[in-house]
Amino acid sequence: MSGALDTVVFDIGNVLIGWDPRHLYRKVFASEAEVERFLAEVCTLDWHLAHDYGVSFEENATKLKAVHPDHAALIDMWRGRYAEMIPGRVPGTVDLLHRLGDSGVRLHGLTNMPSDIFIYLCDVYPELQRFETTVVSGDEGVIKPDPRIFEILIERSGLIPQHALFIDDSHANIEAAAKLGFATHHFSDAVALGRDLTRLGLIG
Q: Regarding beta strands 106-111 and 7-10, do their DSSP bridges make them parallel or antiparallel, or are they unpaired?
């Protein structure tokens, strides 16, 4: 390894492990239009955001079912069948994670995710255990792109932002990290990430 960077911070969802509620609800609804309507009007991403802040599913679902009582069973599927929203590893990224770790790069995770889902993912995807430190929004009550969650990671891990690369699929999160001094990579696929890691001297 060469160059100024010695640390890589990974987002998890849709960078290392895929996630999309459509994978579940396509099994339930007869058409794509019905899936999209349900996710736009009932179980919205804004509603789900509360889980990332650490609000329990039970509390969050109770409020939603009061508004949409006719969709109660479908709302309960969000937690009961959550694993079906996860299609598996994002192709190629885990290989890059292992190459970085094996070459001595320090690895950390920073994710917007419910606490219990992170615990589940660590059991199913042991590569997540390679992180020295993982800051999970559901544990902290704060989510990216709020700079406070980056500051929690910095303090807890001892990393120096100017020596670290932050990888995320969200423009807003990338911008927040850049303001704190991180080098950044806006994730689209493992091929582009691999090229950037090579350019930065993090892998050979």
A: parallel
